[in-house]
Amino acid sequence: KAGVTQTPRYLIKTRGQQVTLSCSPISGHRSVSWYQQTPGQGLQFLFEYFSETQRNKGNFPGRFSGRQFSNSRSEMNVSTLELGDSALYLCASSWTQGPNTGELFFGEGSRLTVL
Amino acid sequence: AQSVTQLGSHVSVSEGALVLLRCNYSSSVPPYLFWYVQYPNQGLQLLLKYTSAATLVKGINGFEAEFKKSETSFHLTKPSAHMSDAAEYFCAVRESGGYNKLIFGAGTRLAVHP
Fold first, then answer.
1. Inter-CA distances, A63 with A76, A79, A96, Å
2. What's the rounded Cα separation, in Å, for the pair B36 and A43?
3. Per-residue pLDDT reduced to its tens digit, A35-67
4. Tell me, what's the pLDDT at A19?
5. Size of interface A-B (CB pairs under 8 A)
6. Judging by DSSP bridges, how do beta strands B19-26 and B3-7 pair with one another?
7. Which residues of B touch A104 (CB under 8 A)?
């Protein structure tokens, strides 16, 4: 069974640019969450999507946005990049019913470097 | 608000020694607790989870954790460390009413030396 797939794995951008990251969840998982991981702030929740609707959002500025498609694939976008946006962005998918609800399966992440 | 505190950002043990990684949580409701492991340049992998079924939870790779409500703790242990256990470990609590949102601790980096 294929795991959570994130693309691209690595990317370099310059300040002011925008970036789009993609996440394909495990087949059957309808919930997709995004986390930012940095050495200073650790793992921070960005947002969660379920059935194409954002149902929870963390404390990030509006430059961070996301969406989910009908096949549960998700993208997140960061506009007007800042140096502080350099991080590992992790996507996680999950069942939304049954005994394993809430158990997150993570992808390997997209490492963004902003110069 | 719920929170997780991991005591010790770095832990070093000898191969074959007991591994003990500490996690304390704060929650006003019965918590759902998790331990994840992260190897270099990889995502997080679930080690084990507590969902109120049993206080002693067994996970993968020989790890286990005990939920102690009186101490608000969920420490991770392994009787005998292996070199391959070297990684970063994260304790997390599922936010009450937050759907699948997890609140993570700062992490503990485990080093295993021969």
1. 10, 5, 28
2. 12
3. 999 999 999 999 999 999 999 999 999 999 999
4. 98
5. 57
6. antiparallel
7. 34, 44, 46, 100, 102
Q: How far apart are CA B114 and CA B104, in angstroms?
A: 30
What pLDDT score does A20 carry?
98
- What residue ranges of chain B have pLDDT lower than 70? none
Q: Where are the beta strands (DSSP E) in chain B?
A: 3-7, 10-14, 19-26, 33-38, 44-50, 56-58, 64-68, 73-78, 87-94, 102-104, 108-113
Q: Is the per-residue pLDDT at A2 higher than 80?
A: no
Token readout for B84 is 């391959």
Q: Which residues pair with B5 in a beta bridge?
A: B24
Q: What is the 3-state secondary structure (H, E, C) of A63-84?
A: CEEEEECCCCCEEEEECCCCHH
A103: which chain B residues are within 8 Å (Cβ-Cβ)? 34, 46, 49
Look-up: residue for tokens 């591994």? B19
CB B96 within 8 A of CB B37: no
pLDDT 10s digits, A9-44: 999 999 999 999 999 999 989 999 999 999 999 999
**A71 close contact with B: CB closer than 8 A:** no
- Name the pLDDT band for A101 (thresholds 50, 70, 90): low
Centroid of chain to Cα B110: 12
Residue B56 confidence (pLDDT): 94
Q: Which of A43, A101, A102 is the closest to B90 by Cβ?
A: A43
- Give first-to-last CA distance, chain A, whole Å: 37
